[in-house]
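Collaborator request, handled under Task 6.
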Amino acid sequence: MKKLFFLLVAFSLFRTSPAVAVNASYFKTGNELLNECKEFLKLEDKTDMSAGNCIGFIEGATDIHNTLVDSLYIKPIYCFPQNVQSGQLVRVVLKYLVEYPELLNAPASHLVLNSFKEAFPCPESQPSK
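Structure tokens returned to the collaborator:
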């Protein structure tokens, strides 16, 4: 039963349809994340609140994905190269948000995952865990 619950959560979290209306279950839209990540890249001092929100959100989405993959043995949505850095992830997300402005009202979590899926596709032979 517990595994079924997590699968339902994972399914709702990782749906790739960006046309979903934002509701109270999502904390952030792509518009908000775009502004925060622009601030992150501008600042020398990465302790600014907007910069922290950007990197914290991206790292949180990444950790949730990795936890679900590791704990529930689901197929990963994306496959990072070894030694990927947080700054690189911010740039990937920011590039995606700029390239798809029509999606900026979608939940930011969907956009982060879609940006990683596009930038870091898993090899076709990637086995499920």
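The cover message to the collaborator said: "The radius of gyration is 15 Å. Confidence is low (pLDDT under 50) at residues 1-24. Please let us know whether this matches your experimental observations."
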